[in-house]
Specification:
By secondary structure, the protein is α/β, with parallel strands linked by helices. The protein has 23 helices and 20 strands. The model has no long low-confidence stretch (mean pLDDT 96).
């Protein structure tokens, strides 16, 4: 026998969890008390907001492909996690959210803290389980973990009433030992030979790697590169697929689509006569609301039910992208050289490089963000994890900061939510403490989670923060300028003194506000210790992007 709280701790350990993020509350105080006895094996990281706790757990999986957990108070604590649940659900990222619940005898009475958490969470979670008695605790815990990691992956929620944590629960050793055991992924089988043949025979083959591939524990980056090299295909990635191929590789063209796609990747995908998609993210983001589609055939391999609902036409195989990749690679034969395709893609690369070079070299009235991020890319280690927020500032990171491994770039890609960058940097720093952990946020983004600078210093995390400050909600400001006849309303901001704020949290600070100061800011970001680099830019600055297609997204 064990208490329900002890049983949960043992279950998390069996699932490979090594950290629990959260905020204590009366409905989980008994859980936290039990975690005290597990503190050498389960690291409890207290954050200053539940949204931060949940997104840190999300980020830890993206970086390490290991499950993590968050624990929050019933009612208000749970409600504060909803944005994070939505981000993880949309990006298909698993983590376990443990929530307290009201005492069983008070359920349904409108008790203090009581809201219908299950109904609220249902659209945002793969699984929601309520422990109604000690005897069913282990089954609920096991089901939650299984649901989180089985495709399509996603967050799972466990609710435990406050009066159950200290109750004695039976331990079924067979169920406990089965936790964390993954089922054998399904591939495409004999179809792999046909897909490999078509890829090799295509004149303009392209592979789109998405988060469903990159976040799989079975994914091997070298397999993707070998397939591209063998068949003459070029690789483009979705936002969540960044790092599926190292972005300095000859065959890797980087991000495609709205909100950060390169001209080279966009033009290559559109020109393709065969597009092989590993994952479900041939969606409105990668295709600019389905206005940019390849000229030829599309083969898509995914286990996600959403793949059957996309309006674009493709041949769909319901299979594990990582398993299918290995099968197709094994069946692949060296293809004839595709010099014409190489020349065409080379012209797209030169066009994009020219756009970036022009942006880097331009003289600006304030700091030049393109120049800053270009210099930064060459000065920070290759082993890097970049956490980006939502806004125009994220385009600078897509354009200039290369990513080299899966989970090396974190963003709320499919929900488009602000407030993810700093929490993700906390989880990333815990998951990969020896990597260079960089958070890139706009002023609007950072102010949403600014309180957790204290978590960074208390936990001793070496997180570098680049604050791109234009004193506005810039995406909407630019839309008002470009599409609303300059009727600027509700998008201009005032901000605190970030230098004083950084020092208040015992964080190093540097300001870059003029052209020519970019090197000084980069140098500060190379020193040890948490650092906030504020780069002041014009709110009218527009980074290089595929503007024609971007404007189609708003039509």
């Amino acid at each position: 026998m064990a208490t329900v709280a002890e049983l949960l701790a043992e279950t998390l350990l069996k699932a490979g969890v090594s950290r629990v993020y959260g905020i204590i509350g009366t409905s989980i105080v008994d859980l936290v008390d039990s975690l005290y006895d597990y503190r050498s094996r389960l690291d409890l990281v207290t954050t200053r907001h539940e949204q931060v706790a949940a997104s840190a757990a999300d980020a830890e999986f993206r970086v390490s492909r290991k499950l993590s957990a968050a624990a929050v108070h019933a009612g208000p604590g749970f409600l504060n996690t909803l944005i994070s649940l939505g981000i993880a659900y949309k990006d298909r990222v698993p983590f376990i959210l443990v929530s307290g619940g009201v005492r069983r005898r008070l359920r349904g009475t409108g008790a203090w803290l009581e809201v219908d958490q299950q109904s609220i969470a249902k659209p945002l979670a793969k699984y929601y389980g309520i422990v109604n008695s000690p005897g069913e605790a282990l089954q609920v815990f096991a089901e939650a973990i299984r649901a989180a990691v089985e495709p399509p992956m996603g967050p799972a929620v466990i609710e435990v009433p406050e009066d159950l944590w200290k109750a004695s629960a039976p331990v079924d050793k067979e169920v406990l030992e089965g936790i964390g055991v993954r089922s054998e992924p399904k591939g495409v089988g004999d179809e792999a030979r046909e897909i490999a043949y078509r890829l090799a025979e295509a004149k303009k083959p392209v592979i789109l790697a998405t988060g469903e591939l990159a976040y799989s524990p079975d994914f091997r980056q070298e397999s993707l590169l070998r397939l591209a090299e063998a068949t003459g295909a070029y690789i483009v990635v979705s936002g969540n697929g960044r790092g599926a191929c190292p972005e300095d590789h000859l065959r890797c063209l980087g991000r495609v689509g709205f909100g950060g796609g390169s001209i080279a990747a966009d033009r290559t995908l559109e020109s393709s006569d065969l597009l092989l998609v590993f994952g479900y993210e041939l969606d409105d983001i990668t295709t600019y609301a389905y206005t940019m589609l390849p000229e030829g055939d599309v083969i898509l391999i995914s286990q996600d039910p959403l793949a059957e609902k996309r309006p674009a036409y493709y041949e769909l195989y319901r299979a594990s992208p990582s398993k299918a990749l290995e099968e197709i690679l094994e069946a692949a034969k060296p293809a004839a050289s595709k010099d014409g395709w190489d020349r065409e893609v080379g012209s797209y690369k030169r066009e994009w490089r020219a756009m970036l070079s022009s942006a880097v070299e331009r003289k600006t009235s304030m700091a030049n963000p393109d120049r800053f991020f270009h210099i930064l890319d060459g000065q920070i280690p290759r082993e890097r994890v970049v956490s980006g927020g939502q806004g125009t500032h994220i385009l600078y990171t897509y354009n200039h900061l290369k990513i080299y491994r899966p989970g090396g770039f974190l963003a709320a890609t499919n929900l488009g939510a602000m407030g993810y960058a700093l929490p993700a940097a906390i989880g990333a720093s815990k998951a990969a403490p020896h990597a260079y952990n960089l958070c890139v946020a706009g002023d609007g983004e950072l102010m949403m989670t600014i309180q957790d600078l204290e978590t960074i210093t208390r936990e001793g995390l070496d997180v570098k923060i680049v604050l791109v400050n234009d004193d506005s909600y810039k995406v909407l400001y630019l839309r008002q300028i470009l599409q609303k006849m300059g009727r600027v309303y509700g998008t201009l901001l005032t901000n605190p003194d970030f230098e004083s704020l950084a020092h208040a949290f015992n964080i190093n600070y540097v300001r870059i506000e003029k052209y020519g100061e970019e090197e000084r800011g980069v140098e500060a970001l190379r020193r040890r210790g948490p650092t906030l680099a504020e780069i002041k830019i014009s709110k009218d600055d527009i980074p290089p992007l595929n503007l024609d297609y971007t404007l189609r997204m708003s039509l």
